[in-house]
Amino acid sequence: MFGILALALAGGLVLNVMPCVLPVLALKAFHAVEHSKHDSRMRRMHGLAYTAGTVSLFVALALVLVAIKASGKRMGWGMQFQHPPFVAVMTAIVFAFALNALGVFEILISAQGKEGEQDKVWGSVVNGWFAAIMATPCSAPFLGTASAFALAGETAAWQTVLVFAMIGLGLAIPYLALTLIPGVGKILPRPGAWMEAVKQLMGFALLGTAIWLFRTFQLQVTPESANWFLFFLLALAVALWAGHRFGGIDRTPVRQWSVRLLAIAAVVVAYRSMVSFDRPRVVTAYTPEGSVGPAKVTTMDPVIVDGHIAWTPYDKARLEREKLRNRPVFMDFTAEWCASCKTNEKAFLETDVVRGALQRTGILPMKADMTNESDELDKLLDKLGRNGIPVYVIWLPDGSYDLLPVAITAEMVATRLDAAAKKFPVEKFAVN
Asked: Over the stretch 265-285, which tens digit does the pLDDT of each residue have?
């Protein structure tokens, strides 16, 4: 158990440099500089508040997963992004954070004195929640083993909660250490007018994150639902601006609360009238019982087209047919919401090294898209002992497989492809 907790802590620590958390890193650095003007006691309070935010969010997530496990349903790391309502909420939250950074409105309106300082500490808790939520679609070294243990059927509920709490602690460690180091104010740059420009720059980075999340939502729902959601985001922006413009801190308390309640009511009305989660219709080909698949592979499909990997969409029948023709299949489990997946594809898969290996070996590249829920792909992940993505595996015709680690390199992938080709060379592929 102590080994698993150490892996969870290390995995949470590594999450700080994963692509999905990078927009939040700048936000954390900004707050570290902002808080450096405070005394050491206040800096510690902000660090502990941020840590409380990350840990409490992961504990809450663990409790939800424990409840799902008790109901007999499958769980997976980051799989909440397969559900359009969750993606929509995340998009709206990140969009709101971006508007705040750009100065459209203020999330926390603080008074002066002790009460105002308490509000600012609560802001650190909120930042911790935000960082933890943004970290969930990413996988990282050490995290796979820890989360697999936490989500296993035989793992006790308290163990699941403890593992997730350690992940949250690992995520908070860099910022917490920064606030606890004596003399940190001398290390960090002094606060000044430059901070406003940096804050606005971060706002544009968060807008990019919101666009990325909307792209996922767009692939999960009908075009009409996606288009109306954009109008909802516009209504949300207007409501946030109006709440700040006409109910700001310079207004009377009655005026502030009246305007804010009207803004909230407007957002609720906009949500009810504009947001829907209609799924696109999926047409599947009919396969007669006992048949391997609807179509036969009569030629060797090219694995590289126009200088890019020619990914074949996941098809159970196609996978079985390639097995019969003695051809290995390299499968990439990915999703639009998985930032680590997309980064790996650009940095390590779409490279000359991997393209050359695929061309040389003739191994079929197949993409298992988990942007939406898929019972078939869930079963494959269960077979591989993984509960999160990215996952890379080479299915061999003899029924075995070569499972690659979460952290890959182009050279590693090419080496494993060559090893599979030695067992099943391209010259022996059958033509069905």
From this structure: 999 999 999 999 998 875 544
